[in-house]
Design goal:
single chain, about 240 residues, 7 helices, globular, binds 6-phosphogluconic acid
């Protein structure tokens, strides 16, 4: 079955972030009403920061039952958890430190370990929230970004498309970011109920057009590997990023 894909284009990055905040609120309320908890995989990078700050603001913060939210990460950079390049740290500063999420509900990657050990450890964390027969949870919401090279999470061009484990250790050079990483794999992403991509800026426009409208080349364009079995994919894109669609 082809995944359900929706593309929303916004005049500004600010509008895009507001819509992402609304989706987050809606998704959390539905999940908590139906299943008693909200399992979300956060992303790193610069793009989600405004979303995180918006969610931490008084208007949105009070619309979410943080006691029932469980935060995970789609990928992590293996640097200490107080390093500015650490995805957990970035989310903490912008969001988690400002809301009443119980510490036990924050499931960070043990990023001070070697990537291979951190990946194995994170697979165990996922297993604690597994939806049998899977060894990992069906996330209610996964937030993802996309790099100028078409990577998403830490699934980079040229990395294996067929994987059998829920997490992988990765070495990847992208911009000046930490290279040693852990990523969830498409096995996990594609079990999610809802996946929201946030993409902003003209430098991503060509790649975005190839990912969404070009031929299927999942080796070179890892964002194309995201095709949930039953869930939906929503792309929130600003006009600059959408200019070649
Ligand atoms: C990371 C990411 C990565 C990111 C893209 C886009 O940890 O680096 O999760 O996949 O989403 O590189 O990054 P920007 O939002 O900064 O463009």
């Amino acid at each position: 079955m082809e995944p359900e894909i929706e593309i929303n284009i916004f005049k500004s990055f600010h509008d895009l972030s507001l819509m992402a905040a609304r989706l987050f609120v809606e998704s959390s309320s539905q999940a908590i009403a139906k299943r008693g908890r909200f399992l979300v995989a956060l992303s790193g990078g610069n793009t989600p920061t405004l979303l995180y700050q918006t969610l931490a603001g008084i208007h949105y913060r009070n619309q979410i039952n943080w006691a029932k939210v469980h935060a995970f990460w789609g990928d992590e950079r293996c640097v200490p958890p107080d390093d500015p390049g650490n995805c957990y740290y970035q989310a903490r500063l912008a969001l988690l430190d400002h809301v009443d999420i119980p510490t036990d509900n924050i499931h960070r990657v043990q990023s001070d370990l070697e990537p291979a050990s951190a990946a194995i450890d994170y697979a165990h964390t996922l297993k604690d929230f597994a939806t049998p027969p899977l060894d990992w949870p069906c996330f209610d919401l996964v937030l993802l970004g996309m790099g100028e090279d078409g990577h998403t999470a830490s699934l980079f061009p040229g990395s294996p498309v067929e994987v059998t484990s829920p997490t992988v250790a990765v070495t990847a050079n992208y911009q000046d970011r930490p290279a040693r990483r852990v990523s969830l794999t498409p096995l996990v992403f594609n079990s999610a109920r809802q996946i929201v991509f946030l993409v902003s800026g003209g430098s991503k426009s060509e790649t975005l057009a190839s990912v969404l409208n070009g031929e299927y080349h999942p080796e070179q364009l890892p964002a194309q590997r995201i095709r949930p079995t039953d869930g939906e994919v929503i792309w929130l894109v600003d006009e600059a990023a959408a200019s070649k669609l």
